[in-house]
Design goal:
Layout: H1 4-21, H2 30-42, H3 49-56, H4 61-73, H5 79-94, E1 102-111, E2 121-125, E3 130-143, E4 148-155, H6 159-162, H7 165-170, H8 182-195, E5 202-205, H9 207-210, H10 213-221, E6 226-230, E7 235-237, E8 268-269, H11 270-276, E9 283-289, E10 293-306, E11 320-325, E12 335-339, H12 347-354, H13 358-369, H14 381-404, H15 412-415
Parallel strand pairs: 1-5, 5-6
Antiparallel strand pairs: 1-3, 2-3, 3-4, 6-12, 7-8, 7-10, 9-10, 10-11, 11-12
């Protein structure tokens, strides 16, 4: 007999899928949408098409596998439309606990052994902590201190892929897709959600994005505030220091206009600046990670001007915050951020906002471990993005269920109806039992 909680969860799942199906363009896509999503939520182990088919249609595994393969790898439905629909369903639930506080940019890697999957190249893989053969995708998430949700997602296509016509054709990379850096992809994702009417929020990102002056400038041009990581070598003008004005025009040639540096007028790295600060510049600040957990560390902050190539400019860059973290048990600073948060912002509030970026780590952990974000085995551009979109949709349902039940009662995957897999079923390619 089904428990009432199981029936209620099943009914909410059906309603959720029915809402997503509205943007699928064809009625016959609702069934594979339901089965793929259900499989992502309840299938144990690897969540590639074969086990999803086995757990959702145990009596017709081959037929269901073909249906799901077509749905995820070839069907021409819009990832952007589905992600917008997911956001429309889940964002109001997140906002029950407060407004959206940040847009979080990040990227994640998926180790791969072959070279034929779209976008695979030897590049830095965060999951491995080193350069290796992998795919990398850039994401944009909305977040507050209670929850977060990815709302934009795009594969980074390395230059060697973008310029290889044969590999592009084999992986069915759309003609309009050209090489873009990860910060450029991130900006495009931000622009998309702003065009859809998402209210302005603080942009959070690590140094892979914050080190790019153009990225920071364009975020500002979009009317957004940022708090982004930077490297220790980033150069700044501290308070009371500045470049020299352009040299006086002699009356010959083009009038000089660029700022100048000399031995007495040159910027210093944020690391050297941090190490020069007096002891009383540092404070122990406490912030929250999640609803209950409190952490603390030592921080300093000061107003600076970024100095990157300002000798090519004719005016100084605007002042902004430099935030530095130097834990008391470390022999040097560990993290640095630039931020255009208001001058009057409280120190503790600034740290709390900057540290909100931790939520993206939890998103990726759950997307990979709970719903199989990295388990897609196809090789095409469309399949990669369709699978990711469906994983994010399944994750959105998990978030919505957390809003229905307290954590102590939540067991979403156990509540959805599971079908018995036949005893004689053997996944394709697996060895027969001895």
């Amino acid at each position: 007999m089904e428990l009432p909680a199981a029936k209620a969860s099943e009914a909410r799942f059906e309603a959720y899928i029915a809402n997503l199906a509205k943007v699928m363009q064809h009625k016959d896509r609702e069934e594979p949408l339901r089965d793929y999503s259900r499989g992502l939520l309840i299938a144990p182990g690897r969540k590639s098409v074969e086990p999803l088919a086995a757990i959702t249609a145990p009596a017709q595994v081959d037929a269901k596998r073909q249906s799901l393969l077509h749905f995820v790898g070839q069907a021409k439905w819009s990832d952007i439309d589905v992600l917008n629909q997911v956001r429309g369903l889940v964002q109001p639930l997140i906002e029950r606990h407060g407004p959206i506080e940040a847009l979080i940019i990040d990227d994640t890697g998926f180790p791969k052994k072959g070279k034929h999957s779209v976008g695979v190249a030897r590049q830095y893989c965060g999951q491995l902590g080193k350069k290796d053969n992998c795919q990398v995708a850039v994401s944009l998430s909305i977040a507050n201190h209670h929850a977060s949700l990815p709302i934009g997602y795009r594969l980074y296509l390395p230059k060697e892929w973008a310029e290889d016509k044969a590999r592009r054709k084999k992986a069915a990379v759309p003609a309009e897709i050209r090489f873009r850096t990860k910060p450029q992809i991130a900006l495009n994702l931000i622009q998309q959600v702003m065009e859809q009417g998402l209210p302005p929020s603080i942009v959070l990102a690590d140094a892979g994005y914050g080190n790019e002056t153009v990225f920071r400038d364009q975020v500002t041009a979009l009317g957004l505030v940022y708090a982004v990581g930077i490297s220790p070598a980033t150069s700044v003008w501290a308070s009371g220091t500045a470049p020299l004005p352009a040299i006086k025009w002699t009356g010959h040639g083009r009038p000089p206009s660029c700022l100048r540096r000399d031995a007495k007028h040159k910027p210093l790295s944020v690391k050297k600046l941090a190490q020069s600060l007096a002891q009383d510049a540092w404070q122990i600040i406490t912030w929250r990670e999640g609803v209950n957990e409190e952490l603390s560390s030592r921080f300093a902050r000061l107003r600076v001007r970024p100095a990157h190539r300002d000798y090519k400019l004719n005016t100084l860059r605007a002042q902004e915050w430099l935030l530095i973290e130097w834990p008391t048990d470390e022999d040097q600073p560990t993290k640095y951020w630039f931020s255009t948060l208001p001058v009057e912002i409280a120190f503790a509030q600034m740290v709390d906002i900057v540290k909100l970026r931790w939520r993206i780590e939890r998103d990726y952990q759950e997307l990979k471990q709970e719903v199989g974000l990295g388990h897609y085995e196809g090789r095409s551009w469309r399949g990669f993005h369709h699978h990711a979109t469906l994983c994010i949709a399944a994750y959105g349902f998990l978030i919505s269920e957390r809003e229905t039940f307290p954590p102590s009662r939540l067991a979403t995957t156990a509540k959805l109806k599971k079908l018995a897999v036949p005893n004689n079923h053997r996944p394709r390619g697996s060895a027969p039992s001895s």
